[in-house]
Each structure stands twice: as C-alpha cells, then as structure tokens.
Request: fold
Amino acid sequence: MRILFLGDVVSEPGCEFVRRKLPGFKKLQQIDFCIVNGENSAKGNGITPQSAEHLLASGADLLTTGNHVFKRPEAERLLDEGVLPVIRPANFHRSAPGKGVWVLEKRGLRLGVANLIGRVNMDQADDPFDCADRILKDFADQGVRHILIDFHAEATSEKRAMGFWVNGRASALVGTHTHVQTADAQLLSGGTAYITDAGMTGVIDSVLGVSIESATYKMRTGLPVRFEHPEGDCSMQGAVIETNPATGRATSIESFCIE
Reply:
C-alpha cells in the first residue's frame, strides 16, 4: 500500500496549490490513500465545510486537524454531522463534536487513520499515549493492519516519544503542527514509518503561512495583531509511505517538497 500524507495546508493559496499539484503527484507516485492535514485550510484560520470540500475534491481521501479545528463555528457542524471524512484529535474531551478515528476502504484495501494532539506547550487534552493504546487495540480488534497516526504536537521530544510508543503497532506516525518539515524521515525498528513534522503546504515567503510583517510585529511587540495570509509562490510538503500489504508494517518513507 502506498500512502501520501500532506502537511498542514494553509489558507486559500495552499488549497489552490493542492488542487494544481496533488492529482498529478498522486498518479506519479501510484498512491492508494491520501491524507491531508486541513486544520488551517480556511481563509484566515481553521477549517470550514467549503475548505474541506475543496481539499477532498482535489484528491484527499481524509482530512486530519489539530488545535485550530474549532476556530470557525462552522467546523462544529462539519465534525458533528460526520458526513465528510474529517476527523479531530481523538484525545479531545468526549464532549467535542466529531470523532478522532476513521477507516478508509478502497479497492479491497483498508487504512485506519487516527488523529492525536500533544500536551507539551499545547492546550489541555487527555493523555495521547493512553488514547493511542485504546485506538490501536480497537483497530486490531477490527482486523485493521494498516494504520496511520497524525500526531499534532509542538514539542519534537513528545512526537519522538510517541513514535517509539506506537513502534511496531502503527504503520506510520506523522507529526504535524509546527509547519517546518524535518529531515528525519525514517523506519523505526518495529516497522513504523516516522517523521517529526511533515511540513506545510502554503506560501513559501511567509512565517508558517502567515505574512512576514504581521508575524514579526507580534514577536517584536507582543501586541495583538490580525495575522494576514500572503499570496505568492507555494510549496507542497509531506511524505510518501509504503507498507507491506500482508503485515501493515512500513517498508519505506520519503519526505518531499514540491514547488
């Protein structure tokens, strides 16, 4: 099985770049399933039904999210209805709309996808390690061998720890949230593909997708500022993971950056 994961898509420029580049790249890479982090795909921030539909129509099979998922009020309805394949971190409080896991099925293939959020330097959430254990057991009980986890976290140490925690039980642990692609794509000893952060899909000349001017002003002054999302040349970043169809263990992972 070949799985494509795209790092955080930021605002309209990122969405439009996905529409231009993703279909051809999927065909070239012979992708079976495409997972995209869309928590900042809406104009401004957050995710809306419109931005979710745009990414799904552009070739995503499922959207993961993170700490910004409920920035827009429309997202609560989007997640609560559960019609579109969009998930939020599974270790949010049980009262949160939506769900944190999904099983994709296509051409006789099955891929379990889970979304978790970290706790180090992040908002309050339940223990992601215990939550991962429950999810992996549930997938095993359903006979789902191919499993990808999007771990949306700030601290590289927490992401690294989670990678080893699920090593040998998940096909892949992909980090998101920091928008900067890391150079550590690797296969862990148990057959889990790992990368600390898949990167960002958005405007290159920006600060994590935000205009340089507004981000710098906030850092220099500490004053409130409305973040602007610039126009300009974009890149699409992520990773391609291949798994053994019989075992679900990863056989390769390669990060990429397309401009």
Q: What stands out?
A: DSSP finds six helices and 13 strands in the chain. The first strand starts at residue 2 and ends at 6.
